[in-house]
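Hi everyone, sorry if this is the wrong subforum. Our group has a chain we'd like a structural model of before ordering constructs, and none of us has done structure prediction before. Sequence below.
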Amino acid sequence: MKVCVAGAAGAFGMKHLDAISNIEGIEVLSVVGVESAKITTFAQERGIPHAYTSLDEALAQPELDAVILATPTQLHASQAIACMKAGKHVMVEIPMADNIEDSREVVRVQQETGMVAMAGHTRRFNPSHQWIHDKIQAGELKIQQMDVQTYFFRRTNTNAKGEPRSWTDHLLWHHACHTVDLFQYQTGERANKLQALQGPMHPELGIAMDMSIGMKVPSGAICTLSLSFNNEGPFGTFFRYICDKGTYIARYDDLVDGHENPIDLSGVAVSNNGIELQDREFFSAILEGREPNASVAQALGAMESLHKLEQLLDA
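Answer:
Right subforum, don't worry. Here is the predicted structure as tokens:
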């Protein structure tokens, strides 16, 4: 299978390239970047045959099967739609759009074209969260509360590598998207009660730097989510699952109990890398002609909840 990675030289694009290198039968045919000299050099250093500054040029490659979009949020919906209309399967990093109208259009085009279209909800695939999901599905655990902290220090417009960013990130439509989807995925329910607060807007970036979100599903489980771009200290997202039988803390691909005792995750998946597992699901769904876990249709539920949260914030 031949794949293009758009935004390959960015923080997440490189994570996908590293993940793909561990998956047999997948060839990175091309990469797409903004600066011609930079992306050409990048491709040469990695032994990738083609480099483009235009996604349309990459999509014109007849031998190309699929595209991974690790591009700015504001481009996700239009680029995902362009890929599907060009007859290419697509995995778009989250969020698949930054508004509900575009999210619904992405799902509509997927249904129209029949292409495999997946949103990059990595948390569904991290072994730590998979272990919890398996226990819930087996009836061994029931979530009482998810307490989640998403913390960064980004008072300037930089990416995860600390490099200047050409687009503005967003606590709600990007970072909250991970947890909103995961909470609804783990409980198997759509949140029917929502609340949201946000702090002052950044004078230059025009975005809220702090946010608090609460959710509840019909069965009674709640989620408390705190987000900040003002936090000094370790950054990332940390999940505390408070369950009827035990408490568990997930830090990306690692899991401990409430007393910090490690949970053995061996045997949960073929890899301990959530990005690799996410990519494996995408390629497997294409080869098997099926809907992937975290398809854009499945991810639409999170986008609907984000839309309602945005309405609460606007009010």
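For your construct planning: The chain has a mean pLDDT of 94. The first strand starts at residue 2 and ends at 6.
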